[in-house]
Amino acid sequence: MNYFYKRSNFYYLAIPIAAAIWVLVTLTILSGNANKSWGKNKKIYTKGQVEICKILAEDLDILKPEKSTNDKTEFDYGKVFTKFAGANSIPSSTWTHGTSPESKRKGKVTQTASLVINDIGVERLTRFLTGMLDTWPDLKCESLTLVKLKTGPDNWKIPELKFTYTF
Q1: What band does 71 get if pLDDT is binned at 50, 70 and 90?
Q2: Which residues pair with 93 in a beta bridge?
Q3: 3-class SS at 97?
Q4: What are 17-39's pLDDT values in tens digits?
Q5: How many helices (H) and strands (E) does the chain have?
Q6: By three-state DSSP, how is residue 122 classified?
Q7: Residue 127's CB: how many other CB atoms inside 10 A?
Q8: Using CB atoms within 10 A of its CB, is residue 85 exposed (0-12), middle (13-18) or buried (19+)?
Q9: Mean pLDDT, rounded, of the chain
Q10: How far apart are CA 134 and CA 107, in angstroms?
Q11: Phi, psi for residue 18 in degrees, rounded to 5
Q12: Residues whose CB falls within 8 Å of the CB of residue 156, separated by 6 or more in sequence, listed in order
Protein backbone atom coordinates (compact mmCIF):
# COMPACT_ATOMS: atom_id res chain seq x y z
CA MET A 1 0.00 0.00 0.00
CA ASN A 2 2.90 2.39 0.78
CA TYR A 3 4.17 1.84 -2.72
CA PHE A 4 0.81 3.05 -4.09
CA TYR A 5 1.17 6.49 -2.40
CA LYS A 6 4.74 6.91 -3.57
CA ARG A 7 3.83 6.67 -7.23
CA SER A 8 3.25 9.97 -9.03
CA ASN A 9 0.31 8.57 -11.02
CA PHE A 10 -1.75 8.50 -7.81
CA TYR A 11 -1.30 12.27 -7.36
CA TYR A 12 -2.01 12.96 -11.02
CA LEU A 13 -5.44 11.43 -10.43
CA ALA A 14 -6.11 12.40 -6.80
CA ILE A 15 -5.54 16.18 -7.14
CA PRO A 16 -7.93 16.69 -10.10
CA ILE A 17 -10.56 14.49 -8.44
CA ALA A 18 -10.30 16.48 -5.19
CA ALA A 19 -10.53 19.74 -7.13
CA ALA A 20 -13.60 18.51 -9.01
CA ILE A 21 -15.28 17.49 -5.74
CA TRP A 22 -14.49 20.90 -4.26
CA VAL A 23 -16.00 22.68 -7.29
CA LEU A 24 -19.16 20.55 -7.14
CA VAL A 25 -19.61 21.17 -3.41
CA THR A 26 -19.07 24.90 -3.89
CA LEU A 27 -21.53 25.14 -6.78
CA THR A 28 -24.28 23.09 -5.18
CA ILE A 29 -24.21 23.67 -1.45
CA LEU A 30 -22.34 26.90 -0.79
CA SER A 31 -23.69 28.95 -3.70
CA GLY A 32 -27.23 27.92 -2.79
CA ASN A 33 -26.76 29.39 0.68
CA ALA A 34 -25.20 32.50 -0.83
CA ASN A 35 -28.18 32.97 -3.15
CA LYS A 36 -30.61 32.65 -0.22
CA SER A 37 -28.58 35.13 1.79
CA TRP A 38 -28.45 37.53 -1.17
CA GLY A 39 -32.22 37.38 -1.51
CA LYS A 40 -32.74 38.26 2.17
CA ASN A 41 -30.20 41.07 2.07
CA LYS A 42 -31.70 42.49 -1.11
CA LYS A 43 -35.14 42.67 0.54
CA ILE A 44 -33.66 44.41 3.60
CA TYR A 45 -31.79 46.84 1.34
CA THR A 46 -34.93 47.82 -0.60
CA LYS A 47 -36.90 48.30 2.64
CA GLY A 48 -34.07 50.44 3.99
CA GLN A 49 -34.00 52.59 0.86
CA VAL A 50 -37.73 53.27 1.19
CA GLU A 51 -37.27 54.30 4.84
CA ILE A 52 -34.32 56.55 3.98
CA CYS A 53 -36.35 58.27 1.27
CA LYS A 54 -39.21 58.86 3.75
CA ILE A 55 -36.84 60.36 6.31
CA LEU A 56 -35.21 62.62 3.76
CA ALA A 57 -38.59 63.74 2.39
CA GLU A 58 -39.83 64.64 5.87
CA ASP A 59 -36.66 66.27 7.17
CA LEU A 60 -34.75 68.05 4.42
CA ASP A 61 -32.76 69.97 7.04
CA ILE A 62 -30.52 66.90 7.39
CA LEU A 63 -29.02 67.63 4.00
CA LYS A 64 -28.36 71.31 4.70
CA PRO A 65 -24.94 72.14 6.09
CA GLU A 66 -24.88 73.37 9.66
CA LYS A 67 -24.44 77.05 10.35
CA SER A 68 -20.81 77.86 9.81
CA THR A 69 -18.87 78.93 12.87
CA ASN A 70 -16.20 80.69 10.83
CA ASP A 71 -17.10 84.16 12.07
CA LYS A 72 -13.91 85.63 13.55
CA THR A 73 -15.78 87.34 16.37
CA GLU A 74 -17.30 84.07 17.60
CA PHE A 75 -14.14 82.06 18.23
CA ASP A 76 -11.79 82.91 21.07
CA TYR A 77 -9.45 80.30 22.54
CA GLY A 78 -9.76 81.68 26.06
CA LYS A 79 -13.56 81.57 26.04
CA VAL A 80 -13.68 78.14 24.43
CA PHE A 81 -11.16 76.62 26.87
CA THR A 82 -12.93 78.19 29.85
CA LYS A 83 -16.35 76.98 28.70
CA PHE A 84 -15.34 73.37 28.08
CA ALA A 85 -13.02 73.13 31.08
CA GLY A 86 -15.87 74.26 33.33
CA ALA A 87 -18.32 71.88 31.69
CA ASN A 88 -15.95 68.97 32.34
CA SER A 89 -15.02 69.89 35.93
CA ILE A 90 -11.46 70.94 35.13
CA PRO A 91 -10.50 73.66 37.62
CA SER A 92 -9.10 76.82 36.07
CA SER A 93 -6.16 76.65 38.47
CA THR A 94 -4.90 73.45 36.79
CA TRP A 95 -4.62 74.74 33.23
CA THR A 96 -2.98 77.59 31.33
CA HIS A 97 -3.05 78.50 27.68
CA GLY A 98 -1.25 80.70 25.23
CA THR A 99 -2.24 81.81 21.76
CA SER A 100 -0.20 82.97 18.82
CA PRO A 101 -1.19 85.79 16.48
CA GLU A 102 -3.27 84.96 13.44
CA SER A 103 -1.33 83.91 10.36
CA LYS A 104 -2.27 83.32 6.76
CA ARG A 105 -1.53 79.83 5.35
CA LYS A 106 -2.59 78.66 1.92
CA GLY A 107 -5.06 81.51 1.59
CA LYS A 108 -6.72 80.81 4.95
CA VAL A 109 -6.34 82.62 8.24
CA THR A 110 -5.23 80.32 11.07
CA GLN A 111 -4.47 80.78 14.73
CA THR A 112 -2.66 78.32 16.96
CA ALA A 113 -2.83 77.87 20.71
CA SER A 114 -1.17 75.67 23.28
CA LEU A 115 -2.75 74.36 26.44
CA VAL A 116 -1.05 72.93 29.53
CA ILE A 117 -3.06 70.92 32.05
CA ASN A 118 -1.31 69.98 35.28
CA ASP A 119 -3.61 67.23 36.59
CA ILE A 120 -6.45 65.52 34.73
CA GLY A 121 -8.04 62.09 34.29
CA VAL A 122 -8.30 60.42 30.90
CA GLU A 123 -12.12 60.41 30.89
CA ARG A 124 -12.37 64.15 31.62
CA LEU A 125 -9.71 64.89 28.99
CA THR A 126 -11.59 62.83 26.42
CA ARG A 127 -14.90 64.57 27.15
CA PHE A 128 -13.15 67.95 27.04
CA LEU A 129 -11.51 67.32 23.66
CA THR A 130 -14.54 65.61 22.12
CA GLY A 131 -16.91 68.39 23.12
CA MET A 132 -14.59 71.10 21.85
CA LEU A 133 -13.74 69.43 18.55
CA ASP A 134 -17.39 68.51 17.86
CA THR A 135 -18.60 72.06 18.55
CA TRP A 136 -15.89 73.75 16.48
CA PRO A 137 -15.33 71.67 13.31
CA ASP A 138 -12.56 74.00 12.10
CA LEU A 139 -10.59 73.43 15.30
CA LYS A 140 -7.91 70.75 14.98
CA CYS A 141 -5.85 69.16 17.73
CA GLU A 142 -2.35 69.08 16.26
CA SER A 143 -0.48 67.32 19.06
CA LEU A 144 -1.06 65.89 22.51
CA THR A 145 1.56 64.76 25.02
CA LEU A 146 0.60 62.83 28.17
CA VAL A 147 2.86 62.33 31.18
CA LYS A 148 1.82 59.90 33.94
CA LEU A 149 1.82 61.42 37.42
CA LYS A 150 2.77 59.33 40.44
CA THR A 151 -0.08 60.75 42.55
CA GLY A 152 -2.70 58.24 41.38
CA PRO A 153 -3.69 55.63 38.82
CA ASP A 154 -5.58 58.09 36.59
CA ASN A 155 -3.61 61.30 37.11
CA TRP A 156 -1.93 62.74 34.05
CA LYS A 157 -0.13 65.93 33.15
CA ILE A 158 -0.42 67.38 29.68
CA PRO A 159 2.67 69.50 29.04
CA GLU A 160 1.73 70.05 25.41
CA LEU A 161 -1.68 70.22 23.75
CA LYS A 162 -1.59 72.24 20.53
CA PHE A 163 -4.61 73.44 18.56
CA THR A 164 -5.06 75.14 15.21
CA TYR A 165 -8.23 76.99 14.26
CA THR A 166 -8.94 77.94 10.65
CA PHE A 167 -11.16 81.00 10.11
Answers
A1: very low
A2: none
A3: strand
A4: 999 999 888 888 777 777 788 88
A5: 5, 5
A6: helix
A7: 16
A8: buried
A9: 83
A10: 24
A11: -65, -40
A12: 119, 120, 121, 122, 125, 146, 147, 148, 149
